[in-house]
Write a structure and sequence with these properties.
About 75% of the residues lie in helices and about 5% in strands. It is built from 19 helices and two strands.
Length: about 450
């Protein structure tokens, strides 16, 4: 049976793909949804002067907002309907998950199955609307004051009506992106929200390449930096692929049972524990938590007099938390480590796994079932999570620091590559699973047809 499965897995080809009609429909639906996402990134907010906004974007180039702009696929610099992207949703989901881990009522709600998860998702959406409202208000107010301070009328008719309209539009754009992501997850292929973030990053690749090419032609970027950057990208992609596929496989032994020939045979299997159980969630969570206050601080600072005490304090915060600064890198690395352990604890429950093994009669050789198995699983998971956290921190922080030190005018670093490679690998794995299921379905149909003929 195992050899037949291996043969089926090895025969995944374009010919098999052409027969998988459902898979093709899912892929086309995903591509269409991502095209809609890209079209929306070019629809400006009502009351925005597009030409003046381009001038203002050149003035405001650099800083933490470039990082935010990368995750939204350039929507922020164009002040489109989806300028906030899905980051408010991610921040709200962090808060809800933290609350579910700490608050007994929410923890009980989480254990209620589908109904409990739907309730928590509803709370997450309410939090998303709240965060979008706050960020949208500061974004609109900061755009008015920032444009006025630079002598650029980016807003046609500044005032409360523009701010209210901008907030409503931004909230609607973000909620539409969430709905689009849910549709991709259910009717398309891959995780919808992750694919939207990846599409935004990939859409910025031509800009990154163009910036590097123009810098090289102008002489501001040397040949060594270009070659080093290309080598760094290649090494990062290979390293990410290796660590994302790395597993610690625990041997699971099952009691002996009688076979058809009367012989006693013991079953064995393996419990795979991924080195990076949390995936791309830690860097996304850490980025969103840093971007939320920094976005509000930057746009609030634009509307405050820099000579005042409040304005000076806000400018100091922005200065020390700029992209590439030591304080920003430190907070970013600590956030990745924290969310790596936090999300791993949410995804994998040693107590539940131990109970399931005990119910099925399975045990780890040399470890007693029950409490000792739970402690052993927690011990092994903690050790490999330490390695996974170090790997994520190095991949995300070190390239960002190197880019900041070399002065390369790009914001394509380890975080971007990690998200793109991880989401791509996950999507390809789901496509292979659909193809394998399609081949198994054809095999079962043929077996039933032969049985009827007999």
């Amino acid at each position: 049976m195992a050899s037949r499965a291996d043969n089926l897995a090895s025969n995944l080809s374009l010919a098999n793909f052409s027969k998988a009609t459902e898979l093709k429909n899912r892929i086309w639906f995903t591509i269409g949804a991502l095209i809609v996402f890209r079209f929306l990134s070019f629809v400006p907010l009502p009351g925005i002067n597009a030409r003046a906004l381009n001038q203002l974007a050149d003035v405001a180039q650099g800083g933490i907002l470039d990082m935010f702009n990368m995750f939204t696929g350039g929507s922020l610099e164009r002040m489109s309907l989806i300028a906030l992207g899905v980051m408010p949703y991610i921040t709200a989901s962090i808060v809800v998950q933290l609350a579910a881990a700490l608050h007994p009522a929410l923890a009980a709600l989480k254990k209620e199955g589908t109904v409990g998860r739907q309730k928590l998702n509803q709370y997450t959406r309410y939090g998303t609307v709240f965060l979008c409202t706050i960020q949208g208000w500061f974004l609109a107010a900061g755009l008015e004051s920032f444009g006025a301070s630079n002598g650029i009328a980016a807003v046609v008719d500044p005032g409360y009506m523009f701010r209210i309209g901008a907030v409503i539009s931004l909230v609607g754009g973000t909620m539409f992106l969430l709905w689009l992501g849910e549709q991709i997850t259910s009717r398309g292929i891959g995780n919808g929200v992750s694919l939207i973030i990846m599409a935004g990053i990939v859409a910025q690749f031509p800009t990154f390449v163009s910036n590097m090419g123009s810098g090289y032609s102008e002489g501001s970027i040397s040949t060594g930096i270009v070659v080093g950057f290309i080598l760094m990208v290649i090494v990062l992609i290979l390293g990410i692929c290796f660590f994302e596929r790395a597993q610690r496989r625990l041997l699971i032994q099952y009691p002996k049972r009688a076979t058809q020939r009367g012989m006693m045979q013991a079953d064995r299997s393996h419990l795979p524990l991924k080195l990076n159980t949390a995936g791309v969630i830690p860097p996304i969570f850490a980025s969103s938590l840093l971007l939320l206050p920094l976005t509000i601080t930057q746009f609030a600072g634009n509307s405050v007099d820099t000579d005042s005490a409040t304005g000076g304090a806000l400018q100091s915060v922005l200065q020390y938390l700029q992209h590439g600064q030591p304080l920003y890198m430190t907070l970013y690395g600590l956030g990745i480590i924290f969310f790596c352990f936090f999300y791993t604890a949410i995804v994998f429950n040693p107590e539940e796994t131990s109970e399931n093994l005990k119910k099925n009669g399975g045990f780890i050789p040399g470890i007693r079932p029950g409490k000792r198995t739970e402690e052993y699983l927690d011990y092994v998971l903690t050790r490999i999570t330490v390695i996974g956290a170090i790997y994520l921190t190095v991949v995300c922080v070190v390239p960002e620091y190197m880019i900041a030190q070399t002065g390369v005018p790009l914001f394509l670093g380890g975080t971007s590559l990690l998200i793109v490679v991880n989401v791509t690998v996950d999507t390809i794995s789901q496509i292979q699973s659909h193809l394998l299921a399609h081949q198994y379905g054809d095999l079962i149909k043929k077996a039933k047809l032969k049985g009827r003929l007999r």
